[in-house]
Amino acid sequence: MFDIQEELKKLPQKPGVYIMHDAKDAIIYIGKAVSLRNRVRQYFRPSHNEGLKKEQMVKQIERFEYIITDSELEALILECNLIKEHRPKYNTMLRDDKTYPYIRVTLGEAFPRVLFSRQMKKDKSRYFGPYTSAGAVKDTIELIEKLYSLRTCNRSLPKDIGRERPCLNYHIHQCMAPCQGYISQEEYRQKINQAIEFLNGNYQPVLKELEDKMLSASENLYFEKAAEYRELLKAVKQIAQKQKITNSDGEDKDIIAMASDGEDAVVQVFFIRDGKLIGRDHFHISVGSEDTRPQVLATFLKQFYAGTPFIPRELMLQEEIEEADVIAEWLGRKRGQKVYIRVPKKGTKEKLVELAAQNAGMVLSQDKEKIKREEGRTIGALKEIGRLLELEELKRVEAYDISNISGFESVGSMIVYEKGKPKRSDYRKFKLRTVTGPDDYGSMYEVLTRRFSHGMKEQEELKERDLDQQYGSFTRFPDLIMMDGGKGQVNVALRVLEELGLQIPVCGMVKDDNHRTRGLYYHNQEIPIDRRSEGFKLITRIQDEAHRFAIEFHRSLRSKEQVHSVLDDIPGIGAVRRKALMKKFLSLDAIRSADVQTLAELPSMNEQAAKAVYEFFHRPSVEGE
Where does residue 377 rank: exposed (0-12), middle (13-18), buried (19+ CB within 10 A)? Predict the structure, then answer.
């Protein structure tokens, strides 16, 4: 058993990171310290007060661990990595996890291309950005390709020169066809250099050239060509207007300021690249009433720049932070050059910080209600369902549905909702193996058995290899299983769980005669739900999503095998007998209703084949009702 008071005595007088665990061994807080002994002991002193949030956290600590580092800087780096990985409950956390687009010029290629990229890698390419609008980046790339007739293909040049015919872009005069050797590497490189000048903000040569070409085409009565140049000229001017000069030093800066109301905070960032304001963005942060502005800004810097590939030369803040020197040293190591953290007091820079703060305040006031509504639709709705079913921990929900048309190509769907939102990366499809014909209970039994058997097998493998079991759609089991149906479907699920030795709550999503959700079936009783509540709306969304996902999968299979019929699955029924059956009875329902004697009367049928058809449509289903 972990004795906190005894373990406190063993703490070293060294820098490092401490990790707090609760009774379920979940990580609830991660922090760094210059002296682990002094910092961790503070939490357990009766006189110590860091606000209500930390006080609640301390009450939940069952054990702690720590990692020693050689310096405070190493502790800072480790703290950032661990917080990003585990996202503890009581750490101040970014709600946003965004990546920004770049324009990549592949200078490592003989005939470079201009591409859209979400990452800045250490390669021979040159990157421009980051930009805040993916749409603007794509428009700019398209414009550059038109202006300089650059290639867009992924052919390996010069190795593939002459192997294939030139593409459509060559014929519409938007590519110089280096794939055919129609332009030399030197000439093509000149085009690329002009494109790089354009991306650096040197628009004047392009504007003058386009204007001259437009006037010349107009004078020679080539009005369609003149119109093309006019549109290109307009596009260049539009992009040029987006680049607002803020100063003449041509350096990269991020302007960072925040606004807070004690519960929520918004940090606003202005991105300045090569002396130009290229965009802005804001980030919502959950804070406690005891969190000061410098603390929130320091937390933001550590988390935001731990996950972004580009570090600017200078960060301008609205006020001083305690860890400025350590953070600047860490950022400098990531950048490979010195990084400066400054608080401007006057002039244009101070005005920019003030503007960022005003924007943060505006976003906070405008978005606060929107954020609360969104949380009500997701986390709040999930809590409402949890209260209804008397389930305390309800984060992950899995829902299942079966789709078929008269028994043909039965498929199952598994969808996952976490914290009230769909987690599409964990969705799974099941093509039925053991069940043929219209047997929803049998189909659901197979789907659930395969899903949880596979998950148990994965868990055992991970345990044997001593790996983390937190990730994977099959490895992680849900807090609640929601079945698309009532008592019958619930009983199928409970039967599977009992056979596998699992204990997971199961409820059914019951529909009325009009096929609309009316309540939940749980513990052998139907629980009505207020149709106006967010919990009811979430249940409806889950049910509709499970149905949609199953139908989409089924539709994709039907498109591949449209000529297949459920009759093909009956032993002894070939193309001739299938055609005779459909011609006589016109529908599968009519065939299902026919007795053996009626089926055997068909010229192509015999008694054995008639029995096979009858037995196929009258097999017993899995018990449930």
Answer: middle
Can you give the pLDDT at residue 557?
61
CA dihedral 266, 272, 278, 279 (to 10 degrees): 0
Taking each helix axis as running N to C, give the angle between helix 293-306 and helix 72-86, from 0 to 180 degrees, rounded to the nearest 10: 80
Per-residue tokens: 346? 């006057």
Amino acid at the residue 200: N
Give residue-wise pLDDT tens across range 284-307: 887 877 788 899 999 999 989 987
> How open is the CA angle 214-217-220, to the nearest 5 degrees?
150
Q: Tell me, what's the pLDDT at 105?
A: 92
Residues 76-124: pLDDT tens digits? 877 887 887 788 988 877 665 566 788 899 999 999 999 998 877 778 8
Provide CATH 3.40.1440.10 ranges for the chain: 4-86
Q: How far apart are CA 389 and CA 509, in angstroms?
A: 13
In which element (H, E) is residue 624 found?
none
Query: Chain-wide mean pLDDT for the chain?
Result: 82
Q: Look up tokens 């040049």; give the residue.
A: 157
d(CA 552, CA 546): 10
| Sequence ranges of the chain with CATH classification 3.30.420.340 | 396-560
Going by the DSSP 8-state scheme, the letter that residue 620 receives in this structure is: P
pLDDT 10s digits, 43-52: 988 877 777 7
Q: Which residues of 456-469 are buried (b: 16+ CB within 10 A; e: fewer)?
A: bebbeebeeeeeee
Output the pTM of the full model.
0.49
Looking at CATH, the fold of the domain delimited by 396-560 is given as: Nucleotidyltransferase; domain 5 (3.30.420)
Q: Which helix (H) or strand (E) holds 271?
A: strand 264-273
Give, for 524, the enclosing helix (H) or strand (E): none
Contacts of residue 318, defined as CB under 8 A and 6 or more positions apart, other chains included, come to 256, 257, 258, 293, 297, 343, 353, 354, 356, 357
Q: How far apart are CA 601 and CA 594, in angstroms?
A: 11
CATH 1.10.150.20 placement within the chain:
566-617
Domain at 566-617, CATH class: mainly alpha
Domain 4-86: which topology? GIY-YIG endonuclease (3.40.1440)
Could you give the CA distance from residue 272 to residue 422 in angstroms, rounded to a whole number? 35
Cβ(154)–Cβ(106) below 8 Å = no
**Averaged pLDDT, 117-146:** 80
Read off the tokens for 350: 């101070």
- Residue 492, C-beta contacts closer than 8 angstroms, at least 6 positions apart: 441, 444, 445, 448, 483, 622, 624
Nearest to 613 by CA among 568, 583, 555: 568
Q: Which residue has the tokens 């079966």?
A: 402
Residue 566 confidence (pLDDT): 66
CB-based burial of residue 45 (10 Å sphere; 0-12 exposed, 13-18 middle, 19+ buried)?
exposed
Helices (H), 465-595: 487-500, 534-560, 575-585, 588-593
Q: How far is residue 443 from each of residues 247, 401, 402, 555, measured CA to CA in Å?
A: 67, 10, 7, 17
